[in-house]
Write a structure and sequence with these properties.
Blueprint lengths: L10 H9 L15 H18 L1
Length: 53
């Protein structure tokens, strides 16, 4: 689970992540969340994704 900075990942960081085999991008919308809130929301999306697989 990667939680990015408030301003988002840089273009070089996004390109590097896209090149990684085991990375699946999942967004949480246009919201800016505190890090601890983003982790909880991200884990919820993670479990939702894997329950559907």
């Amino acid at each position: 689970l990667l939680v990015g900075p408030e301003g988002g990942f840089s273009s070089s960081e996004r390109n590097w992540l896209k090149s990684c085999i085991n990375v699946t991008p999942v967004g949480l919308g246009n919201f800016i969340l505190r890090a601890d809130t983003a982790v909880c929301a991200g884990l919820s999306r993670f479990f939702e994704y894997y329950e559907q697989s």
